[in-house]
Structure formats: C-alpha cells, structure tokens
C-alpha cells in the first residue's frame, strides 16, 4: 500500500505571527520639577496676583514653591515607576519580572552549560581498565574568562552519566564517549528539621538548568514543578531567584513528602553556564596524570574536545521574559491551535541539547490524519545565532508534544534553514565628520545590531534595503547609504533577499565602509 504521507511538503497554511503593539511606558511628562514650578507660579499669579507679585528667586515664597515642586516631582516619578513595574510589557527590573512570572506559574529559563564531546587517549595499552574518577575538571581560559569544564562518561545519546567513572578499557588506547559540560559541581548537606515546606537556599550560583539532584538518607528524590496532591511522594521543587540562585523546597506530608527529622539531605548541583563555554573544536588539549589502581604508578592521559562547545546560554533577561510570558499564557501548556504549537515549541528547552531559537508551524492536508503539522525548528547557538537541532533534541520535543497535542493531530519535527547574508554597507559622509568616524561607526553598528536582532526576525521574512535604511535613519551624519546583500544564490541578493517558508535570515559578514566627500 502506498504511503499516503510520503510526498513533498506543500503547506496549505503557514502560521502567521501576530504583530504585538509596543506599549508605551507611563511617564511623568508635565509632572517634573520645572513643569510643576511653572504651573504653581502661574496659579499664584492667576489667583493672588493682586496680593502677591514678588516672584524673584530669592523670595521665601518661591523657595516654598520649589520645595512643593520637588516633592511633587519625586512622588510623580515613583508612582509612574511603580505602575510600570506592575505590567510585563513595561517592567524593567529583573526581580519584578520574576515576581510577575511567579504569579502565573511561568519559569524563566536558567543558564545552561555548554556541551562538547571529548576523547581520553593514553600512549600505551594497559592490561587492566584505567578508571578516571568523574567529574574530571579541566580548567581553561576563553575570551579572557576562566571557566571549568567537567568530564563525564556519555551514554548512547551523548548525555552525561553522573554516577559512573570514565573508563579506558584494557587493551584500548582511547575512549571517545566522554562528554564535557561547562560548570562546576558542588555538594551540600543539611538535615531535615520537621518543618512544613522546609526550604534550603544553595550557597552558590548561578545554578545550571536541570542540574540539581537531591538525596534523602541516600535515596534520590524526584524534582517536580508542582507537588502531587493525591499522596505524599518523595518529591522536591526547585525555585530560582532573579540571580539564578536556587531554593530547594519540600512538601508538607499531604502534597509532597516531608523529610524526617534528622534525616541527611544531600544536594548535588552544578554552577556556571553561559555562552562563554561555547568553545571551538580542538580548543583544549590537556595532559593529566591518572593513577592505576594497585600498580603504584600513574600514566598520562590526553583529553581533547573533538566537537565544539554548544548550547551554552545565559539565563533569561527581562527582555526574554517579556517575550516568553505572553506566549506561555496563550498556550496554557497545551497544543490545539497552530499558535499553541509555535508558542509551546518556542518555550521548549532540554538539559543537554539546547533551547529553541526559532520555530514555525505549517499545516498541510493528508489522507492519513485529520491534521498534519510540520514544525520547523532551530536551536539557539550562542547569544544571537541559530543552528540545526540534533536528533536527541527533536526526539525529546516530539515526545513532549505527544503528551499535549490533539489526538487527531500528526506532527513532524523538521530542521529549519538559516539563510546567511553578507551585508555590504557603503556610508557617504561629509569630510568634516572624519574625526568623528569612531562615534558614527558605533551608532551605525548599534542600529545594525538592533535591526538584525534575532527577536526581530521570523521564518519567511524578506530582507529589503529600504527597511535597513529606515533603521539607520537616526544616525544624522551620513547623507547617503549604498546597501548590497550577498547570498550563496546569485539570483537572491542585491537590494532584496527573499526566503522560503522554512528559512530565516541571519547575517554572515557585516562590512561597513566609509566614503568622505567635500
């Protein structure tokens, strides 16, 4: 029987991303000191002009007016500031953004440590297994920043195995199933005190996403988002603060089991994370002496990374929370509409295979299901880049979607495509501004960075020179720009770069040149 689903993807409908209006922050225009003072003086002139006309600055009455204006200025500013911090669209303080997230059950993304694959190599074959205790710390410097990479044995999916040691088997020279994770492991111990909802603040931070393990009297407990109401179970919750420190929270013996009084609570967790761990391939080659059990001597083992570090990311900023929280509220942790799928996928993250960078959902008809949806996804690469997801990421995403999708929906997880563009910008400036080139270049690069920011781009979006010119309009000194876009396709460039529905534009090379005229 012919496979009814085996045909070229031709979407009948692509999910359109709705335009969200940018809210205007409350401001205290006409409520500042000078406005209030001038209005008070005008009021006095109008009401008491025939009784008081001494408005010189040294007058005692003017001093009192200025004091009232100052108090009014401060009160107005604080009231508007407090009002702005109460809404997700205008919040500016990370602490307040976390509080707003907590109100609706949204969890901002904590930092993630970069992951790379390593080899351990010895110079001569041994007749017994060489056991290397894990985690094995490799200290390196990247971008003038010191960091630690911990080595663990890898499973078949290249995930770390925390409870085992690295082994170079007898008769072998190399072990290439080693995973390196940026960050450092800490182990803390406390005791059960019998208090309901006992909590414990970990000493170090920022705590890496999905790295906390809790053992009560040697038994590992399960981390959950919410305690099970039906029966007390060995569960704990992790609650992040705005600086990504962590509280460990236990239950009350009705929802979540309460650790017994005097029980030993052991918490193992990892600290670090960020894009600094995204090292290039073969960046590290380190020789470490490893003792051989029972032999009384050590052998040198060379450790090197044969893949680049990937998936390291910083925790969510205020801007990230502003963008993600409305999507979380719209999806309500289920997938019914096309927008639900996009919102859910955009918020998806894994412990060791990255977080979603950009996704889009398209719908096509099929003879084998009621709804057939193709989800094109790319994962975050560094601070503002995108790359194709690996098979483990797509499998974890599909498994999660199976629990939340409509029963009649059939979904395919596919790779999105990045269309890289070289941007050549020729800037024409009067020669009198030559001495200010560095300042002008700083403003141009700032506006280019904002224009090409990842959050401003979606799949299928066209790049036009006129849009870039509008973005540069705030730079006053240049009187003319010449813009040229270059891609691998000679027919797709010049003044306009078009994309297919599964493609998204990112810059490759950004060249800015200056021409000075009379």
Describe this structure in words.
The strands form six sheets. This protein has a seven-stranded mixed β-sheet, with no helix packed on it. It has helices spanning 33-48, 60-84, 94-103, 318-331, 338-346, 391-402, 437-451, 465-471, and strands at residues 13-14, 115-122, 130-132, 136-142, 145-153, 166-168, 174-182, 184-191, 199-201, 213-216, 219-223, 235-240, 246-249, 264-271, 285-291, 298-305, 356-364, 371-381, 385-387, 409-415, 417-430, 463-464, 480-486, 496-497, 503-517. Residues 1-7 have low confidence and may be disordered. The chain is globular and about 105 Å long. The relative contact order is 0.11. The protein has five domains: 33-84; 115-183 and 275-305, no CATH class; 185-271; 332-415, GMP Synthetase, Chain A, domain 3 (2-Layer Sandwich), CATH 3.30.300; 418-517, no CATH class. The termini are far apart. By secondary structure, the protein is α+β, with helices and mostly antiparallel strands.
